[in-house]
Amino acid sequence: MNKRNTFVKYICCITLLVMCSMAYAQGSDEYFKMAKEVVKEKGNFAKAAEYCEKALDLAPLDMDIKEYLGKCYMELGRLEEARVTLLDVLQHSPRRTDARHYLINIETQTERYASAVCYVNELLEITPYSKTLWRRKINLYNLMDNRVEANREIRRLYQIFPNDPEIKQMFNNVLKEDALKMNKDGDLNSAVKQYQSALMVTKDDEEMYLSLINLYLKLGNTNEALNTADMGLYHLPGSKEIFNKKIGILQEQHRYQEAIALVQEQQKKAPSAYYSNLLIYLTAEAARYHKNSDPYVLYGQLYDRDKGNDEAHDYLLSTAISRGYYADALAILEQDLKSNPNDKNLLSKQLLVYELLGNKNGIRRTLGRLYELYPSDSDILAKYNALAFEDAKVQFTEQNYNEALPVFIRLSENPDYGKSAKNYIYSIYLAKKNYAQAMDMIDQQIRENPGEQQYILRKIDLLAAMNDYANAYEMARQYKEQYPDNPEYKYMFKDISVAYIKYLNEREGYATIRTIADELVAEDPYNLLAYNYAIGARISMGQYAEAMEMIQAALVKFPDNKEMRLKEAGVYSQMGEHEKAVAALQKLTADYPYNHDIKGSLVEEMMLQAKAYEDAGEPFQAKAVYHEVLLVKPNDTLAAIKLANIYIARQEYPEAMKVIEDSLDLNKDNPELLYKKGVIYELMGDFRRAREFQAKYVPPAHKYEEHKDHLAYLDSQLLKNQINISYLKATADSIFVHTSVATLEYLRFARRNTFIARANYAARPTGVGVQAEADWYYTFKTESYKTAPYFIANLGFANQFFPKFKGALSLFSPVKKVYMVELGGKFARLPDDRNFITGVLGAERTFDRLWVNAKVMVMSDTEDLYNSFFAQARFYMQNEKDYVTAMTSIGTAPEDEKLEFQIDTFLTYVNTMVGAGYFHHLSHRTSFGVLGNWYNYRVNDNAYVNQYNLFLTIRTKF
Question: Are residues 462 and 536 in the same domain?
Answer without folding.
Answer: no
